[in-house]
Specification:
The complex is a heterodimer. By secondary structure, chain A is of the alpha+beta class. In chain A, about 15% of the residues lie in helices and about 35% in strands. Chain A is built from 1 helix and 11 strands. Chain A is elongated, with a radius of gyration of 23 Å. The relative contact order of chain A is 0.16. Chain B has one domain: Up-down Bundle (Cytochrome Bc1 Complex, Chain C). In chain B, helix 7 packs antiparallel against helix 10. The N and C termini of chain B lie far apart (about 95 Å). The chains are: A alpha+beta, B mainly alpha. At the A-B interface, loops of A face helix 8, helix 10 and helix 13 of B.
Chain lengths: ~140, ~425
C-alpha cells in the first residue's frame, strides 16, 4: 500500500513536472516583428522593378499595374535569398529560385511563398505575412 | 604545578607541530613507501579514490588507448575553468554580447587568451571525443560487459556536439547567427513535431534575444550538468566493468612467476591489510585476487597518476601554445538581413551542412538519426565475443571496415564542405 502510494506519487509528480516544465518553456508572447506592416505608396515601386525590403524579408514585384510581395526567407533552412539575374539565390546551401519564387535548383523543398498585399484607405500598401496567397496572385492597382 | 607530573605537549611544541598536524589531518596518508601505503593513497584521497588501487598494465599502454578519453576529460576541465571565467564578463543580450566579445579582446586582462583557450579546447574536445569513439570501436572495447558504457559514451559524444552548437551562438557574430538559423531550421525538419521543437529552441519564430538567452542557459547550466553526470557514470562503469578493455590473454599470468614472491626478500613482506572487503566490494573480473599472487597489475600510485598528470600537462601545454599563436575568430556583428556568402558552419558540422545541401531532411535529420541509432545498437547487435582489446583485430575485419567507411565518408564531406564550396555553396576549386 505504502509502496503503491509512493510509486504513484513519484510517477505522477514526475509526469506533472515534465508537463509543467514543457508549458513553462513555451513562450506565451514573442517579441518578434509584427507580421502585418505598411510598405509605403505604390509609387515607391516603379513598374518593372524588384525591390527587396531587407528588414521585412520580402521582395516587392511590380509589373505594370500589378504588384506582389514574395518572401526572401529560403524555404530550405531559413537563410535570406539574394536577388540574382534569374531570380533568387541562397548563399547558404545553393538553392535557386526563378523570379516568381519557383525552385529551379538546389535543396529547397518548396517555392518561396507569396504574401497578401492590400491597398489601405490612406493609399498605403500593406503586407500581411500571416496570409499566404497563391503564387501569381497580384494586387492590381 | 599539579599537572607537571603528567607529560603534556606544551603550547609551543604544538605550535611547532602545527603544519605537520594540519597536513596529516588533510592527507591521512604519508607519501607512500610500501605497497600498503600505495594502496591507502588511492582510497584515502577524495580525488584519487575513483581510481582502483591497482590497474592492469594494459591500461597504461599509450599505444592501446592513445590517452584519448583522458585528454577529452582534461579538455573538458579546461573548458569549465575558462568558461566560468568568461561568464564574469559575458552578457547574453543581443545588444551587448558582441561588444562584450570586443571587450574581451581589448580591455579585459587575459581576455583574448581565455577566449582562445575556450574555443580551441572546444574544437579539440569534439575531435578527441570522436577519436576516442573510433578507438573504442576499432579495438572492439564496447563488447560485453561494456555495452552500456558504450551507449553512455555515444550520449557523451552527442552532448559534446550540443555543447559546441549552443556555445556557437553566444558571440552573436555573423557566423553565430547564421549557423544557428540553419541549425534550428534543421530541427524544423524532424517529423511530426519539428516546428514545435524549433519554436521551443528559439523561444519564438526567429533567432533573436529569446534564442540567445535559451542557448546561454543550455550552454552554461543545463548541458554541463548533464555532461558531468554522464561523465561520472561513464567513469564509474569503467571500474565496475573490470577496468579498461584488454585482450583475454593479457590476464594470463606468466607461469614462472606462479611460484609466488620470494619471501626472503624483505621488500615482498607486506603488512596485513587493515581494509577488508565485503562480497559487494569485490571488483568484477575474471580473477578475484587474494593476497599477493603475482599478476599483471601495477599500483595506481604512482604509475597511473604520473601518466594522468603527464597527459594533463601535455594537453594544457598544447592548448596554451595554440591560444598564444592563433586567435579565435570573431566575424562582423550580426546582420539579420545579410547572411555571409558562403555561410559555413564550424568544420565538424560541415559534413552535415554538405549533406543538408542535398536534402534538408535526409542530410540533417534522417542520416544522422540512423547513424546514432546504429552506434547505440552496435554492442547489442554485434554478438561475436572475439577481437577485444586489439587494434584492427582480424576477427573484426567486417565491422571495422564498415565503420572506417562511414568515418572516411564523413571526413570527405567535411573536406568538400571546407575547401570545395564557395559563394552560393557552388563547387569551387580551392586553388
Amino acid at each position: 500500500m505504502l509502496a503503491w502510494l509512493t510509486g504513484g506519487g513519484l510517477v505522477g509528480s514526475g509526469l506533472l513536472s515534465a508537463l509543467s516544465n514543457f508549458v513553462f518553456i513555451t513562450p506565451r508572447a514573442t517579441y518578434g516583428q509584427p507580421q502585418r506592416f505598411g510598405i509605403g505608396k505604390p509609387d515607391d515601386y516603379p513598374p518593372g522593378t524588384r525591390i527587396t525590403l531587407e528588414n521585412r524579408r520580402i521582395c516587392v514585384l511590380r509589373d505594370g499595374t500589378k504588384l506582389a510581395a514574395v518572401s526572401t526567407t529560403c524555404t530550405h533552412l531559413g537563410c535570406i535569398v539574394g536577388l540574382s539575374d534569374t531570380g533568387f539565390a541562397c548563399p547558404c546551401h545553393g538553392s535557386r529560385f526563378d523570379q516568381d519564387g519557383n525552385v529551379t535548383g538546389g535543396p529547397a523543398p518548396k517555392p518561396l511563398p507569396w504574401y497578401q498585399v492590400t491597398l489601405a484607405p490612406n493609399g498605403e500598401l500593406e503586407v500581411d505575412k500571416d496570409i499566404e496567397v497563391h503564387p501569381g496572385s497580384y494586387l492590381t492597382l | 604545578m599539579s599537572q607537571a607530573a603528567q607529560p603534556k605537549t606544551s603550547l609551543w611544541s604544538a605550535m611547532k607541530a602545527l603544519p605537520g598536524t594540519v597536513w596529516s589531518s588533510v592527507f591521512r596518508n604519508p607519501v607512500p613507501s610500501n605497497d600498503l601505503e600505495r594502496s591507502a593513497t588511492s582510497f584515502t584521497n577524495f580525488f584519487l579514490h575513483i581510481h582502483p588501487v591497482k590497474v592492469h598494465k594494459n591500461t597504461l599502454r599509450p599505444a592501446y588507448t592513445l590517452g584519448l578519453g583522458l585528454i577529452a576529460l582534461w579538455l573538458f576541465v579546461v573548458l569549465i575553468l575558462t568558461g566560468v571565467l568568461l561568464m564574469f564578463y559575458y552578457v547574453p543580450s543581443t545588444t551587448q554580447a558582441y561588444d562584450r566579445m570586443l571587450d574581451l579582446r581589448g580591455s579585459v586582462a587575459f581576455g583574448t587568451i581565455l577566449r582562445n583557450m575556450h574555443r580551441w579546447s572546444a574544437h579539440g574536445m569534439v575531435a578527441v571525443v570522436f577519436m576516442h569513439l573510433c578507438r573504442v570501436f576499432l579495438t572492439g572495447a564496447y563488447k560485453k560487459p561494456r555495452e552500456f558504457n558504450w551507449v553512455v559514451g555515444v550520449v557523451l559524444f552527442l552532448l559534446t556536439l550540443f555543447m559546441s552548437f549552443t556555445g556557437y551562438l553566444l558571440p552573436w557574430d555573423q557566423l553565430a547567427f547564421w549557423a544557428i538559423t540553419v541549425g534550428t531550421a534543421i530541427a524544423g525538419y524532424v517529423p511530426f513535431m519539428g516546428k514545435e521543437i524549433q519554436f521551443l529552441l528559439m523561444g519564438g519564430t526567429s533567432v533573436g534575444q529569446e534564442a540567445l538567452l535559451r542557448f546561454y542557459v543550455l550552454h552554461v547550466a543545463l548541458l554541463p550538468s548533464v555532461l558531468i553526470l554522464m561523465i561520472a557514470i561513464h567513469f564509474w562503469r569503467i571500474r565496475k566493468d573490470g577496468g579498461l578493455s584488454r585482450p583475454p590473454e593479457a590476464d594470463r599470468v606468466p607461469p614462472m612467476e606462479m611460484a609466488g614472491p620470494n619471501l626472503a626478500d624483505p621488500r615482498n613482506l607486506v603488512p596485513r591489510p587493515y581494509k577488508t572487503y565485503g562480497i559487494q566490494g569485490l571488483v568484477r573480473g575474471p580473477i578475484t585476487k587474494v593476497n599477493n599472487i603475482p599478476d599483471n597489475t601495477v599500483y595506481a600510485w604512482p604509475d597511473l597518476f604520473i601518466a594522468e598528470l603527464f597527459t594533463l600537462v601535455v594537453t594544457v601545454s598544447v592548448i596554451l601554445v595554440l591560444s598564444l599563436f592563433f586567435n579565435a575568430p570573431l566575424e562582423e556583428p550580426v546582420n539579420v538581413m545579410h547572411p555571409p556568402n558562403p555561410a559555413k558552419a564550424p568544420w565538424y558540422f560541415l559534413g552535415l551542412q554538405e549533406m543538408v545541401s542535398y536534402s534538408a531532411f535526409w542530410g540533417g535529420v534522417g542520416v544522422p538519426t540512423l547513424f546514432v541509432i546504429g552506434l547505440i545498437l552496435t554492442p547489442y547487435m554485434d554478438r561475436s565475443p572475439g577481437g577485444v582489446g586489439r587494434w584492427f583485430s582480424r576477427e573484426r575485419l567486417l565491422a571495422n571496415t564498415v565503420f572506417i567507411a562511414f568515418v572516411v565518408l564523413n571526413v570527405i564531406f567535411v573536406i568538400i564542405g571546407t575547401f570545395f564550396r564557395g559563394p552560393n555553396w557552388a563547387f569551387v576549386a580551392p586553388w
